[in-house]
Amino acid sequence: MPREIGADGDPSVAGLLEALAADDHPGLRFGDQVWSWRQVVSAGAVRASLLRSMSGAGPPHVGVLLGNVPEYLFWLGAAALAGAVVVGINPTRRGDELAGDILRTDCRLIVTDTEGAQLLDGLCFGVPADRVLRIDGAAYLHLLEQHQGADPHAIVADADPVAADLFLLLFTSGTTGTPKAVRCTQGRLASIGMRSAAAYGFERDDVAYCTMPLFHGNALMALWAPSLVVGATVALARRFSASGFLGDVHRHDQRPAAAGLHVPRGGGQTRLTAGQQGHRRAALGERSRHRPADTAAGPGHHHHWCTHLRSRRTVAISSPRWPRSGSSQGTARSSHLRNTVFGKRGRRAG
Q1: Distances in Å between the alpha carbon of 36 and those of 47, 219, 230, 233, 341?
Q2: pLDDT, average across residues 256-273
Q3: Mean pLDDT calculated for residue range 161-178
Q4: With the C-alpha atoms ordered 81, 82, 87, 88, is the resulting torsion angle positive or negative?
């Protein structure tokens, strides 16, 4: 029986996935491809079965060195079902620093692609070559074929993951020194997802548009986890692009929730959840310290955004008030929102 609540009485990511195992509602969109939640959970079960066949004693640490692609989410599901740990490897790291991140987190398996494998070439990172899986290789597809039909409920019954199990090791940015791997258990992420879903008004019919990198906590805690809680659809973008943002919004049923940007049905306002402030400012042509859109879209992207705003007349964007230091809210930000309304020319209206 699906268990949203783990055997220890607390919510777990494995339980949230089990509850969606027979759900044919769209669970993931990537480009023109669509997977139902049933298919998403099944894909995770296939990889969980593969993982258990390759690992020795103890829960393995799986280093995921990928961009924003469906395989990343499938391996998150695999680790949750199998009681394993995902190490979110930062692909902007290079050389000995990258190797050190992998060594310090005791990775036994690396999931990557050709681009990631090139970053690892020549490095000593402690993982045998036959434990480096390239998702764009024929050998990987052959391995998956051997585990097709794996039952997620049977895997959970055998692995018995609980809320207290370590689930994620996510690296800090490194602005104050060497990046450190921060621990997150299954129960913590599930609880954060529940609070975020309530705070930002996630609903089953929403589309959660993810532009933040999946190795970053905000993408998982402010978008993926609350989507699991309500069974909303995750629309995955390879990266943020100001010039392509509204095109993606229209393509995904005009229902965005970008890691997070969220428009409730019948809305009238667009809610901006934690981690997307810089993207919103850059896309609207406001001054932004980081200005990620400048590098993603190049010159002229402000005009493209404002053209869409003129055609839509008015959009209201809300920003969360961040909790005070030491707040029990933690990563799930406060639900008190401050509205900022932009007029038809994209200028602040009040």
Answers
A1: 17, 20, 14, 9, 35
A2: 43
A3: 89
A4: negative
Asked if the model's pLDDT at residue 316 lies above 60, the reply is no
CA–CA separation, 279 vs 285, rounded Å? 10
For 178, counting Cβ atoms within 10 Å of its Cβ (0-12 exposed, 13-18 middle, 19+ buried), the class is: exposed
What's the pLDDT score for residue 259? 44
What pLDDT shows up at residue 59? Answer: 66
Q: Report d(CA 110, CA 95) in Å as an integer.
A: 16
β-pairing verdict for 207-210 and 233-236: parallel
> CA separation (Å) from 78 to 111, 145, 249?
12, 15, 29
CATH 3.40.50.980 for domain 13-186 = yes
**What is the reported pTM?**
0.75
Q: Where in 220-276 does DSSP place strands (E)?
A: 233-236, 257-258, 260-262, 270-272
Q: Residue 337: is it exposed, middle or buried by C-beta count within 10 angstroms (0-12/13-18/19+)?
A: buried
CATH architecture assignment, domain 188-342: 3-Layer(aba) Sandwich (3.40)
Q: What are phi and psi of 190, to 5 degrees?
A: -65, -40
Question: What is the C-alpha to C-alpha distance for residues 50 and 65, in angstroms, rounded to an integer?
Answer: 18
Establish whether domains 13-186 and 188-342 are of one fold: yes
Give the separation between CA 12 and CA 14, rounded to whole angstroms.
5
CA–CA separation, 65 and 69 (whole Å): 11
Residue 48 has which token pair? Answer: 């969980």
Domain ranges within the chain, ordered by starting residue: 13-186, 188-342
Handedness of CA 124, 130, 69, 191 (dihedral sign): negative
Per-residue pLDDT tens over the stretch 94-152: 999 999 999 999 999 999 999 999 999 999 999 999 999 999 999 999 999 999 999 99
Q: What is the pLDDT of residues 288-312, one digit of tens each?
A: 333 333 333 333 332 222 222 222 2
Q: What angle do CA 253, 254, 259 make, to 5 degrees?
A: 105
Longest dimension (CA), the chain: 60
| Alpha carbons 192 and 27: distance in angstroms, whole number | 19
